[in-house]
Write a structure and sequence with these properties.
The complex is a heterodimer. Chain A has helices at about 5-25, 30-35, 45-55, 60-70, 75-80, 85-100, 105-115, 115-150, 155-200, 205-210, 235-255, 255-260, 265-300, 315-325, 330-365, 370-395, 400-425, 430-455, 460-485, 520-535; strands spanning about 305, 310. In chain A, about 75% of the residues lie in helices and about 0% in strands. Chain A has one domain (about 5-230, about 265-400, about 510-530): Sodium/glucose cotransporter. The longest helix of chain A is centred in the first third of the chain and has 49 residues, at about 155-200. Chain A has 20 helices and two strands. By secondary structure, chain A is mainly α. Chain B has a domain at about 20-70. Chain B is mostly helical. Chain B is about 70% helix and about 0% strand. In chain B, helix 1 (about 10-30) packs antiparallel against helix 2 (about 45-70). The longest helix of chain B has 29 residues, at about 45-70. Classes of the chains: A mainly alpha, B mainly alpha. The interface of A and B includes residues 21 and 322 of A.
Chain lengths: ~525, ~70
């Protein structure tokens, strides 16, 4: 694939706009709250699109198209089972605590609800996870751009890191949110025409199904046993592992996405953030997974071979090259760049907030003037990007780094979900119960990993191993937290007002028209998701 | 629903400008270089360039209306 002058012009135009937004916003970053929390003034549609876009990184866009080519419509479980139900839950039930407690981050909520050591544990594991995820995101994109366009891996990594660094240092979370919304529209406009053309070319949905192995266009009917589907997972693994533990663990506790909702201007907007995000999220499979399936159905297999191996990750770029003339190809490549940048900026802004508030201000320098923390936020942004670049080069050393990334998620997010569920919905859960439960859950994930690697535990696929690893980590944390809480002293009820469900006044929206209330939106999103599962059963 | 995002910069300005610029560039390029070979016989640059331009123009017009409303407020 070779780009023309018009394609480069479009890419340059995009980079100039992204930097321009950061430059315009710089003069409005006066306090650390402006920089880290955007001064809490965005309407729900902006935070909603940013909430979704921060998760729409290069790994998500290219990886899900690759899974579409490999597993077919089963991949949509990552959306219709593995995202939407959790997004409804976080919007309706968890956002009142996050937003209402006025905590500035997820680790800070843990300090308010439990104690300092639980916050420290989460802050450190989260900081490590975000820079690793950011680096791997960068690495994945650089590899694909090298294979497709012949771009140097070093140049791709350094140039894109420099653009993200410039706009996040200048405009902080506000700049990141503005660019995430812009990137959302670019991704949709850059990929949608190719998705439509590809399905028409394959002879419609029926024509596509006829060209693919049986069951490739179904979501549930092949999940009776692990042997009956290409993913090697049965329905219990999907529902419990992906649909409950991994999905709720990510969407409900990961500060990367929760931070976007915290930038909303009021409680109603914060609650509606994940619900509004769920609407485009449920249709993303049609522009990402379906083109991956069409790629596998109509393109010659040899196009997928690079370095002597079949590279499913090439599915989306191959389809762009197949259907787009010069010009539109520039828009498509810009969409991939945009997905990479939004994913990376999401990680970097979450990292600089957790570093500055939860590590630096708490353990290194307390009670400094606000402008010092604003400066530290900018320094942390530079450091976060530099460490991400280092992590990208580290990723170059490993052939199966994706497995490690999934593994890190199951180590960090899966046990944390149990801590949050017990902490938010039971006032009897104690600080010691939470800390040791979280430590035990993480240790269980590590032991499960060692059992799989040493052959003591066996699964049909790495995906199944990840799902069950997450289930064990969650269950261990849940059981340990309950048990230890039973024998240790809970905090006084007066200290838990606004932090625990039974001690918090529920937000009332009688003044809002019923169509504009979070519960109505949640119902609509839920019904649409059930309908999609049923249509592709 | 209020569409403006922050008092200092309505988010529709940068998005509208970028889409209008890319859309115009694509549509003009498509009109000058009709290339139907790749996109199932469709001049995709012209058609999608026009769609992107209209989307951008719509956002700009909304942002402009909101600005005028704000300016009129005492």
């Amino acid at each position: 694939m070779k780009l023309q002058l018009i394609d480069y012009a479009i890419i340059a135009l995009y980079c100039a706009f992204v930097l321009g937004v950061g430059a315009v916003l710089k003069k409005h970053m006066r306090t650390s709250v402006d920089f880290f929390l955007s001064g809490r003034r965005f309407p729900a549609w902006v935070t909603g699109l940013a909430f979704m876009s921060a998760n729409l990184g290069a790994l998500e866009v290219m990886g899900m198209a690759a899974s579409g080519a490999k597993y077919g419509m089963l991949t949509s479980h990552f959306y219709w089972v593995g995202a939407i139900p959790a997004m409804i839950f976080v919007g309706l039930f968890m956002m009142p605590f996050y937003y209402g407690s006025r905590a500035r981050s997820v680790p800070e909520y843990l300090r308010l609800r439990f104690d300092e050591k639980t916050r420290a544990f989460n802050a450190f594991t989260f900081a490590v996870m975000t820079v690793l995820a950011s680096g791997i995101n960068m690495f994945a994109m650089a590899i694909v751009f090298q294979l497709m366009l012949g771009w140097s891996i070093h140049a791709t990594i350094l140039l894109s890191a420099a653009v993200v660094l410039a706009y996040t240092v200048l405009g902080g979370l506000t700049s990141s949110i503005y660019n995430e919304v812009l990137q959302f529209f670019l991704i949709v406009f850059g990929i949608l025409p190719m998705a439509v053309l590809s399905v028409v070319d394959a002879g419609g949905w029926a024509g596509l199904a006829a060209r693919l192995p049986p069951g490739f266009t179904k979501t549930w009917s092949t999940l009776g046993s692990a042997a009956a589907n290409p993913m090697g997972v049965e329905w219990f693994g999907i529902v419990m592992g992906l649909g409950f533990v991994l999905s709720f663990g990510y969407w409900c506790t990961d500060f990367l996405v929760v931070q976007r909702a915290m930038a909303a201007r009021d409680m109603a907007a914060a609650q509606k953030t994940p619900l509004i995000a769920a609407v485009p999220k449920m249709f993303i499979p049609f522009i990402v997974i379906v083109p991956g399936m069409v790629a596998w159905a109509i393109l010659p297999r040899e196009l997928f071979v690079a370095g002597g191996q079949v590279q499913h990750n090439l599915a989306l770029p191959l389809m762009l090259a197949h259907y787009y003339p010069p010009g539109m190809l520039g828009v498509g490549i810009t969409a991939l760049l945009a997905s990479f940048m939004s994913g990376m900026a999401g990680n970097v802004t979450a990292f600089n907030t957790v570093w500055t508030y939860d590590i630096y201000q708490s353990y290194i320098r307390r009670n400094a003037p606000d402008r010092h923390y604003l400066l530290m936020g900018r320094v942390a942004t530079v450091a976060g990007v530099a460490i991400s670049v280092g992590a990208a080069y580290l990723a170059l050393q490993f052939s199966n780094i994706m497995d490690y990334l999934q593994l890190i998620f199951s180590f960090v997010n899966a046990p944390l979900l149990a801590t949050f569920l017990l902490g938010m919905f039971s006032k009897r859960t104690t600080p010691n119960g939470a800390f040791w439960g979280l430590t035990g859950g993480t240790a269980a994930a590590a032991l499960h990993f060692l059992a799989v690697r040493s052959g003591l535990a066996h699964y049909s696929s790495d995906m199944a191993a990840n799902f069950y690893g997450a289930i064990y980590a969650w269950a261990t944390c849940f059981a340990l937290t309950l048990l230890i809480s039973f024998f240790t002293r809970p905090r006084a009820e007066s200290e838990l007002v606004g932090l625990v469900y039974s001690l918090t006044e529920r937000p009332r929206y009688n003044r809002l028209p019923w169509l504009n209330r979070p519960a109505t939106l949640a119902l609509l999103v839920g019904v649409l998701t059930i309908l999609l599962n049923w249509l592709f059963w | 629903m209020m569409m403006d995002s922050t008092p200092e910069l309505d988010i529709r300005w940068p998005i509208g400008l970028l889409f209008a610029a890319i859309g115009a560039l694509l549509a003009v390029y498509g009109a000058l270089h009709p290339d139907g070979g790749k996109s199932l016989g469709l001049n995709l640059n012209l058609v999608w360039g026009a769609v992107m331009f209209l989307f951008g123009a719509g956002l700009l017009s909304g942002a402009d209306r909101a600005k005028r409303r704000t300016d009129r407020r005492p």
